[in-house]
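Hey,
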Amino acid sequence: MEIKNVASETFSGVIGLYQKDQTLLEMPYGFRDLPNQLENNRETLFGTASAGKAFVAVGIMTLIEAGSIQLTSTLAELLPDDLGVVDREITIYELLTHTSTIQDYFDESIMEDYDELWQDFPNYRIRQNHDLYPLFIHKPVNPANRGKFQYNNSGFVMLASVIEAVTDKPFDEYLQVAVFEPAGMTRTGYYELDRLPANTASAYCFDEKTQAYYTNIYSVDVKGTGAGGCLTTVGDVRRFWQALLNDRLVSAVSREQMFTQQATNGEEIYGLGFWLTELNGQLVPYFEGMDPGICFFSLYDVTREVNVIAISNKTDNVWQIGMDFFKQV
């Protein structure tokens, strides 16, 4: 099958398109280092922003299957931390489905850009998951929000804290053992921006005033948290899907829970850690993320066994680009 290149000339990142065990396309574009004109390649590490929530959700499901926690377990039962005004009766299920009363530390109805968070709270201070607590645990709670789907980064920070409390390990170390290693994701991890491995793409934002690109090093958390920030490659994302769909990470029962509608606001549909969209009369899972200089999108049509992965280090429209490739299969 010949796949037409539908990426723009300015696109920077990697596109992966697969059907069953066949690679239809795995193509890098643009530069991981603009000033030095170092090109992106198939093994380049990219930031994924909120896409890391899918990894955290799988980690939580492994703990549920191990009997360490339940979907009905509450924060009061699991976390000894000082949580300020956060309702300690919030359940794991409510956190996974964005239906809790926790206030989101990045409220998109108030802030337009993620980098606004760091005007009064330096991003270099975010090196552990709980370092984000001051940004939300004292925000006023609205009990009326309980049960309503409202996308919430703070909820997944709490889930990562649950992982840490239950396993007595940093959440990223647990994910390494429970998710990344079993899936064969050898390049994936939570790396600090000032300690990045070789062949990592710098993430570029565009300054309209100067008409020039600058890196996002002052725009995002210096290290990822439960809310997002994992770095990975297109090949590792493919391996994640394969491991998840072949029951190497969690059971088929847990996977089906994750891929089944659990919450909606009438337009967006959410499972457990995964978004869902309707294609050909069926709900198809995907996960995504966007931060300054970072865009990620990956969808898996389980019926046709078609997987698309689109990652950008210039905030390109990976949703449109990815689906334009996907529709050719």
